[in-house]
Write a structure and sequence with these properties.
112 residues, Arc Repressor Mutant, subunit A, two-stranded parallel ribbon, 6 helices
Amino acid sequence: MSLKESNLTDFQKKVLELTKKIPKGKVATYKLIAQVLGNVNLSRAVGNALNKNPFPIIIPCHRVIKSNGFVGGFARGIEEKVKLLKEENIRVNRNYFIDLKKYLVDEAILEK
């Protein structure tokens, strides 16, 4: 099954398509994805869409975090999200925060 064939809404598909563009070793925020989609107020909806991701790892929803740098939630649990991020050489501190100055993806990459 592909993303196009899935039962997801158009919004959910758009969120997942953007998420696929986040390169290994970088993160995006829920807010940044919402902003690229045209409405920063959709951050929570972005999170909900990511929670429905039928292709985890292939569509790297673990690379999407909160705007304050906190890793945020993950369907498989926060420890699994941290493990995946660390495997991509993203440093997560002991309080589950990531340095956005170092790891935040350039918005232009998502807009391509």
